[in-house]
Design goal:
This protein is an alpha+beta fold and about 700 residues long. The strands form five sheets. The protein has a four-stranded antiparallel beta sheet, sandwiched between helices. The chain contains 29 helices and twelve strands.
């Protein structure tokens, strides 16, 4: 790929980013879009919204960047939790290590690659991107020691930064555990594979077992019921509530008195009536028959729960399987209906599906690789030769189109792995990787533009939420304006960070031209993700930073893969000295990984008994244990309480925010400080919330639902 094609792709993506970021800075100021760009603040802040008309609302401004940059880690921890802090520390680590890598490789490795062979060079924009790779060095070159030295510097810096980050995050996780003294999950154990008995229910079997063997620590339990029955009851109740809610626009859940048309007396309207029975739909329903062989068991202390979760309960490991319970809002009740004996089969099926997706994904990858090589493209499609002679068309096809097509395939097929080669034997892996990576350096760089820069701009724009909001307002005339608050997509964004980290490490000494563009991506990611965490996404699932070991291990893998590729190159270039020095580096990296695995990783997988015992003693001395025990039974209810359910939804019409960019924090306005740069107007109208309580709240449960709740 020519540098001109690379610059064309960069120009297209830079233009897209500038347009989208400018458009975002305008759209976020419009009151109609507050529920899209300030969902978290609407739900958590309860602020008031005003709708003045002023010209600054339609002028782009960088105030959101300033606020994201100035927000401290402590403020972020208090607002979004430890998971958000750990995620941003992953981004910060990437910025630090790739800044060091870019300085070393651009200053020393890139010039060595460019002048690797004695020849007359063209102008920079007419050069091929392969001129800047290690492929341009001649065999037996004495300058390969520069690449080996750079590899040592990068590995040493990465390991040093990883060690300090691991140590810091481990301390933060311990602080997270000790600071969450009232978490019900610390007193609760999830029991699966309860043995079936024809003489008694699962609940009676479980109660008898724990009364006999854990009488001093056992408190109570909560059975898991068949998810279909529970969901049908909740759905019927929700539909009934929604039907009554939309009978009249001003309906509420409290009875009101209006004069009767016929007699002139007062009659109750807009009120709920309790039915005397449930009808035939639930008649004859046996609660015990709906129990599943799983339950949440509650214990008196955290240490008791920890011991039960770690000890093998039966001589048959497939029965009485125990594990520490997740947080109540982390429970996916449908999964608990799956028999434990089926789990290993499902894991195998998942692995087979992942491998199948990997091979399916090879088809678009092979096609896209051909697009990056003009000669291969002309040979495969002769009718395109005339079009490809046009310089601009050539640059767009080879520089921009391949990465766009690949992203489209990412949405169709899960991005599990990009396998670019088929190896004939294990010994050929370093050499074949060494031959393949430089030829795809240009494609990886354009992929950084399209999947990196442009995707970040789309992330901050929230196009799907924006379109849905516009449709609800303009087309369907939705006056309720209810919306679902969003959770941060860790499951997609962490793999994206890891992928770009892998590309950065593997191309660092091979094709360092990608490093400045990756560094720009990580800087943008830090500001944009921080803005989204502060304003858009709410925190529902909190793991306490448990995914940091995944990031650590993946970074170690990226370093090892980089060293193996470099070893293959040194072998191809017949440099025995560089090859000899690379092997000890691989061994040292493995030793560092093993040390971290023993020193820090257990903290992220298990709770220290010492910490839990100290927490139990502190709660006993403060007299909090009885209060905690009373709350345990209700928090793991399969029938959600109104307070649990209402936290996931909000209504734009019930929240009022000051309009952006006019009020300044230094003016002393509390709302302006909270929303950093928004303009208030005292003439705004405040709306009352007239929505009905959830059908699943205690006062609207059906008798069968109440019976289920009592039996558990």
């Amino acid at each position: 790929m020519e540098i001109s094609a690379l610059l064309t792709s960069a120009g297209i993506n830079i233009s897209i980013c500038i347009v989208l970021l400018s458009l975002y800075s305008i759209l976020r100021k419009q009151p109609a879009n507050y529920c899209v760009y300030f969902g978290r603040r609407l739900v958590c802040g309860g602020a008031r919204r005003y709708d003045p008309f002023w010209y600054e609302r339609f002028v782009p401004s960088p105030s959101w960047l300033v606020k994201a940059w100035e927000t401290s880690e402590d403020e972020l921890l208090a607002a979004a939790g430890l998971d958000a802090v750990v995620f941003l520390r992953m981004v910060i680590f990437s910025i630090r290590i790739f800044f060091i890598t870019a300085v070393v490789c651009i200053a020393f490795v890139l010039p060595v690659n460019y002048y690797g062979q004695p020849k007359v060079h063209k102008e920079i924009h007419l050069e091929s991107s392969e001129v800047f790779t290690i492929e341009n060095l001649k065999e037996g070159s004495k300058w390969l020691w520069v690449h080996c030295l750079a590899l040592y510097i990068i590995t040493s810096a990465a390991c040093l930064l990883l060690y300090f980050e691991y140590r810091t995050i481990a301390k933060m996780r311990l602080g997270h555990i000790t600071g969450s003294a009232s978490k019900p999950s610390q007193f609760t154990v999830l029991i699966r594979a309860i043995p079936w008995s024809p003489d008694q229910s699962y609940s009676d079997t479980l109660s008898k077992y724990f009364t006999n063997y854990y009488s001093s620590s056992y408190v109570s339990h909560q059975m898991v019921y068949h998810n279909g029955i529970i969901q049908r009851l909740l759905l019927d109740a929700e539909r009934m509530c929604q039907s009554l809610k939309h009978v009249a626009p001003e309906i509420n859940c409290k009875p009101s008195l209006t004069p009767c048309t016929f007699c002139g007396g007062l009659t109750a309207t807009n009120s709920f009536h309790i039915l005397s029975n449930e009808g035939d739909s639930v008649k004859g329903m046996e609660i015990g028959e709906q129990e599943r062989p799983a339950a949440f068991v509650f214990f008196k202390t955290r240490y008791d729960a920890l011991v039960v979760s770690e000890v093998l309960q039966s001589s048959n490991p497939m029965l009485w399987v125990t594990d520490l319970a997740p947080e109540p809002h982390d429970v996916y009740w449908r999964n608990l209906n799956i028999p434990y004996r089926q789990l290993w089969i499902r894991r195998i099926a998942t692995l087979v599906g992942a491998v199948a997706f990997m091979f399916v994904f090879l088809i678009p990858v092979t096609f896209i690789q051909g697009l990056t090589q003009l000669q291969q493209l002309s040979h495969a499609f002769p009718f395109l030769r005339g079009i490809l002679k046009e310089k601009f068309i050539n640059q767009v096809i080879t520089g921009y189109l391949p990465s766009v097509i690949l992203i489209l395939f990412f949405y169709a097929v899960p991005p599990l792995m990009m396998q670019l080669n088929v190896f004939s034997s294990v010994r050929d892996i370093p050499a074949q990787l060494a031959r393949a990576v430089p030829t795809q350096a240009g494609f990886f760089t354009t992929y950084c533009f399209t999947s990196g820069w442009a995707s970040l701009a789309c992330e901050i724009m929230q196009p799907m939420a924006l379109i849905w909001n516009l449709v609800a307002k303009a087309v369907s005339k939705n006056k309720d304006e209810s919306y679902e608050t969003l959770r941060f997509p860790y499951h997609t964004e962490i793999p994206r960070l890891l992928l770009f980290g892998l590309l950065g490490f593997t191309n660092s000494v091979i094709a360092p031209l990608i490093l400045p563009f990756l560094l720009i991506y990580f800087f943008l990611a830090y500001l944009i993700y921080k803005n989204q965490i502060l304003n858009v996404y709410i925190t529902k699932y909190e793991s306490g930073g448990q995914y940091w070991p995944i990031f650590h291990n993946t970074t170690i893998f990226s370093l090892l893969l980089t060293q193996i590729i470099a070893l293959g190159f040194f072998g191809l270039k017949l440099s025995t000295v560089a090859s000899g020095f690379t092997i000890p580096l691989i061994l040292l990296t493995l030793l560092f990984s093993e040390y971290c695995r023993h020193r820090f990783a257990p903290i992220f997988h298990k709770h220290p008994a010492q910490v839990l015992l100290d927490m139990d003693k502190a709660d006993e001395m403060a007299g909090k244990m009885e209060e905690l025990h009373k709350k345990l039974h209700n928090v793991y209810s399969q029938i959600p309480l109104h307070s649990q359910k209402s936290s996931s939804k909000g209504e734009c019409s019930t929240q009022e925010l000051p309009d952006p960019e006019k009020l300044k924090p230094e003016e002393g306005d509390a709302i302006a400080k909270e929303l950093w740069g928004y303009q208030g107007n005292e003439s705004g109208q405040e709306h009352e919330d007239k929505s009905c309580p959830s059908a699943s709240s205690p006062e609207h449960r059906t008798p069968t639902m109440i019976e289920l709740h009592k039996r558990s």
